[in-house]
């Protein structure tokens, strides 16, 4: 499946009210824009590959670390909070949670770090996961 210029698979059902593309997110980060990217993947996933200038808070820790996340956002007034995971499912849950705690402009990075690796920054390694086991993706 080929990727379009936004870094997403051509058949990806993009939801602009809830998502931002990997390419647009990379542009925001590279430009120094006022964004806060929260990576909600598991520790082994983060250890294998992650995007620079992101904050790692696994999905199962969001509620217990909500104050920390809100403080990070408060230190960047008006910032857009973006959630990142492997394929976009956990990050969508995180974006919904962020909105529920008052971070109303929160969104998910569409397609996750997989789409990021394919379309925004191929230097970020792709991987596969089962449970907490992570290994390099087949080419």
Query: How many H/I helices?
Result: 5
User: What share of the residues lie within helices?
Assistant: 25-40%
Task: Write the CATH homologous superfamily.
Answer: Rhodanese-like domain
In total, the number of strands is 7
Explain what this protein looks like in three dimensions.
With 139 residues, the chain is α/β, with parallel strands linked by helices. Helices cover 33% and strands 18% of the residues. The protein has a single domain, classed as Rhodanese-like domain (Oxidized Rhodanese, domain 1, 3-Layer(aba) Sandwich), CATH 3.40.250. It is built from five helices and seven strands. The strands form two sheets. Strands 1-5-4-2-3 form a five-stranded parallel sheet. A two-stranded antiparallel sheet has the order 6-7. Helix 4 links the parallel strand 4 (80-84) and strand 5. Helix 1 packs across helix 5 (112-120). It is globular.
């Amino acid at each position: 499946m080929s990727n379009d210029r936004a870094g997403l698979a051509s058949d990806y059902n993009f939801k602009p009210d809830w998502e931002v593309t990997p390419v647009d997110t990379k542009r925001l980060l590279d430009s120094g824009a006022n964004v806060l990217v929260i990576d909600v993947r598991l520790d082994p996933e983060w250890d294998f590959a992650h995007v620079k200038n992101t904050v790692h808070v696994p999905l199962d820790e969001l509620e217990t670390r909500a104050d920390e996340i809100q403080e990070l956002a408060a230190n960047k007034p008006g910032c857009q909070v973006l959630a990142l995971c492997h394929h976009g499912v956990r990050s969508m849950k995180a974006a919904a949670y962020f909105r529920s705690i008052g971070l109303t402009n929160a969104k998910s990075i569409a397609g996750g770090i997989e789409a990021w690796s394919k379309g925004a920054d191929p230097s970020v390694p792709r991987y596969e996961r089962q449970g907490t086991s992570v290994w390099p993706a087949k080419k």
